[in-house]
Write a structure and sequence with these properties.
567 residues, Urease, subunit C, domain 1, eleven-stranded mixed beta sheet, hydrolase activity, acting on carbon-nitrogen (but not peptide) bonds, N-acyl-D-aspartate/D-glutamate deacylase, Metal_Hydrolase, Amidohydro_3
């Protein structure tokens, strides 16, 4: 297929191009970028790009669309944000290796089931995306799933033999194209893995030149220092580059802890989204991991037992108030986003406290927050997720300070399961662009392109997708700089992004006029270095009239130069 994009302003991490250019795409790659009006359209498909920016496709560096990506509504939600590639296998829980049953049950309210994967490892999982979706998908090797495959539901430390088997599974996954290793150190069974175990699993990651990616231990926010210290220890022991998942805390703390990593000689990046509140399975912050590591049916049966409830009320619930800075008012800080039980369909969008009050009114009795939360978990067989507030909401200026850090990459942590989900799944990328560039003036458009595309491509090894340049893969997004923004909010979380109406994946229009075209050129992306010998490689700013300015741009240019020298 031949496509011409007319009269567009080309923007990538290298800078901003001339006032208007034509872009010729032949097959899956960019063929030429001549002055505007010089291309004979012939039989080409022509897209009018006047008044819009043409940017490399956005990469969601932390996504939970693993199983949902085959749903056209999810594809539409991603493409309306400009996302052309998602990275799954996050938080230590994913379908591969193994048959996917553990992840499907434990993360039922986060990833949900995969429609076709039933085993075969990372190669089979990535293969399932080839030609089956409009959006590309990559994956990490999830350390919790690896532990489950070798040790089942054990809470013990790994033996040397078990550790060797786990390392072999990690190496196999990397060899089949995984981008790195992920951990979820607040989830079961990953919470039971010690620092030495994690460092050992990161050794094959370092050997492969991949990335150790961590949902840190302890709930983030004010507890982040301990998590960062563990990340640093793992990096120093293994030699692996590291990436911190959804790093959210007060801006000064984020800066200080990243500076600590830099001073320790740790090569680190992080992802963040432009919202303060979090989202996770309800069982994680309110139940002990020693219980939730068991099969969901067994946990539900335990929670239905009055004696177990009394024990949890007396011995466990008083200990959970420090998690993620929830505080003793946690019932008012957790909003039900997804409840699998039809009997509680009415509770979507209510806090646990509000739900308890409504349940009391409906029953004519008195149901407190603890009993209500446990009732919902039992009825749903634990398939419940919640939006989690924090003690102090950050301002847009504070969020911009985090996202404009030179080590930041764009990641939504988007969960598409639920009637009242977190708005980050549908709003993260357009909200980031509107807030950072237009409203807070924290970044220019070239810097923003580095955030949402180029840094992730280089960090995770996604090939030649980081620039709008001849010879590069034509994963491309047309952005209206004056209109781009999010409509999703905490109260109305299903709104789609605006200002992005045309998107191409591998040179094929997949979004046109804001609607899906029905084309499915997406593929499972296997890890690859940025190839200095690839067509169109060379100086990143070779066709730019305006170079990127400021410390972010300077650092990015150095990173790309170093990356290409390494290859």
């Amino acid at each position: 297929m031949t496509v011409i994009i007319r009269g567009v302003v080309v923007v990538d991490a290298g800078g901003i191009g001339a006032a208007a250019s034509d872009v010729l795409i032949d097959g899956e790659r960019i063929e030429a970028i001549p002055p505007t009006g010089t291309l004979d359209p012939g039989d080409a498909h022509v897209i009018d790009g006047r008044g819009r920016l043409l940017m490399p496709g956005f990469v969601d560096a932390h996504s939970h669309a693993d199983g949902a990506l085959f749903d056209p509504e999810v594809q539409l939600a991603l493409l309306r944000q400009g996302v052309t590639t998602v990275i799954g296998g996050q938080d230590g829980v994913g379908y591969a290796p193994g048959d996917g049953a553990y992840a499907t049950e434990y993360f039922a309210a986060i990833n949900g089931p995969h429609p076709s994967y039933r085993g075969g490892g990372v190669a089979a999982l990535l293969g399932a995306y080839d030609g089956a979706t409009a959006v590309n998908a990559a994956t990490l090797v999830p350390a919790g799933t690896v532990r489950f495959e070798v040790m089942g539901r054990s809470t013990d430390a790994a033996s040397p033999a078990e550790l060797a088997r786990m390392r072999a599974l990690v190496a196999d996954g990397l060899g089949e194209g995984a981008l790195g290793l992920s951990t979820g150190l607040d989830y079961a069974p990953g919470v039971f893995a010690g620092t030495d175990e994690l460092a050992a699993l990161a050794v094959p990651v370092a050997a492969a030149g991949a990335v150790y990616v961590s949902h840190m231990r302890g709930g983030y926010e004010a507890n982040s220092a301990a998590g960062i210290a563990e990340v640093a220890a793992i990096a120093r022991s293994s030699g692996a580059r590291v990436h911190v998942s959804h790093f959210h805390a007060e801006p000064h703390l984020v800066r200080e802890l990243l500076t600590d990593l830099d001073r320790a000689g740790v090569d680190a990046t992080f992802d963040a989204y432009p919202y303060t509140r979090g989202c996770s399975i309800l069982a994680m912050p309110i139940l002990p991991a020693s219980l939730t590591v068991r099969p969901a049916a067994e946990v539900a049966a335990e929670l239905a037992d009055p004696g177990i409830r009394a024990m949890l009320r007396e011995e466990w619930f008083p200990t959970i108030t420090g998690y993620a800075s929830l505080g003793p008012e946690w019932p008012s800080m957790l909003t039900l986003a997804h409840v699998a039980a039809p009997d509680y369909d009415w509770a979507h969008g209510l806090t646990i406290a509000e739900g308890a009050a409504e349940a009391s009114a409906r029953s004519g009795g008195s149901i407190d927050a603890i009993d209500f939360a446990l009732d919902v978990l039992v009825a749903s067989r634990l398939e419940v997720n919640v939006v989690m507030a924090v003690q102090h909401e950050r301002s847009d200026a504070g969020l911009a300070e985090i996202l404009s850090h030179p080590a930041a990459v764009g990641g939504s942590d988007g969960i598409f399961i639920g009637r009242h989900p977190h708005p980050r799944a549908r709003g993260s990328f357009p909200r980031s662009l509107a807030m950072l560039v237009r409203e807070q003036a924290a970044l220019g458009w070239a810097d923003a392109s580095a955030l949402v595309s180029a840094r992730s491509v280089a960090r995770f090894g996604l090939g030649d997708r980081y620039a709008v340049r001849e010879g590069f893969v034509a994963d491309l997004v047309l952005v209206d700089p004056d209109a781009v923004g999010a409509t999703a909010s905490y109260s109305a979380p299903l709104g789609l992004g605006v200002g992005i109406d045309d998107v191409l994946v591998a040179g094929v229009p997949v979004l046109a006029g804001g609607e899906l075209t029905g084309a499915t050129p997406g593929r499972g992306i296997r890890r690859a270095a940025v190839d200095s010998a690839a067509p169109g490689s060379g100086p990143l700013v070779s066709h730019r009239t305006t170079d990127i300015a400021g410390p972010v741009g300077d650092e990015w240019s150095r990173d790309i130069a170093e990356e290409e020298e390494e290859v």
